[in-house]
Amino acid sequence: MSLARRSLMEAAATRFGWRRAYADTTAVDALLTEQTETAYTEAADHAALATAKNTDVLHVQPCVLDVRGRVLADVLYLEGLLAGARTRDLPPELIERLEDAVDHGHELTVLLADTVRTTAALHAAS
Q: Of 63, 64, 78, 87, whose Cβ has the fewest other Cβ atoms within 10 Å?
């Protein structure tokens, strides 16, 4: 398949939320590398915006709340994948990795909630 055709299909998949499964690890590694590069490229913009915008503790709070909401939604989605993997008796290695991801995600939501509480407490103390 031509690069232009593949890119158009990938753009459509992204736009409509379609997911593609990759059967070989080389393709998976390439996708993971691309995701990482994209995230780091966008991170520079986020850092510049956050530096300009977040002038006190309450300015940080809405952003952290937004991130926590998205992480929580994703973790709950992962829990559904985990339940499906268990129901379908998929390989134990996959189930273990999903369990680890779900546990880590829940830990992250707790840390983010603590961060939000801290912003309120620090504002109240000032």
A: 87
Residue 59, token pair as written in the block: 């300015």
CA pair distance 69, 6, nearest whole angstrom? 33
Compute φ and ψ for 44, nearest 5 degrees: -60, -40
Q: Using one digit for the tens of pLDDT, what is the confidence trace for 52-63?
A: 777 788 889 998
What percentage of the chain reaches a pLDDT higher than 70? 86
Question: Is-contact 58 119, C-beta < 8 A?
Answer: yes
For the segment 84-125, what is each residue's pLDDT rounded down to a tens digit?
Answer: 999 999 999 999 999 999 999 999 999 999 999 999 999 999
Q: Which value, to the nearest 10 degrees, does the dihedral of the CA atoms of residues 46, 35, 75, 44 take?
A: -10
Sequence-distant (≥ 6) Cβ neighbours of residue 79 within 8 angstroms: 102
The number of angstroms, rounded, from the C-alpha of 70 to the middle of its chain's C-alpha atoms is 7
Neighbours of 32 (CB within 10 A): 12
Q: What is the spatial distance between Cα 27 and Cα 32, in angstroms, rounded to a whole number?
A: 9
φ, ψ of residue 19 to 5 degrees: the values are -115, 145
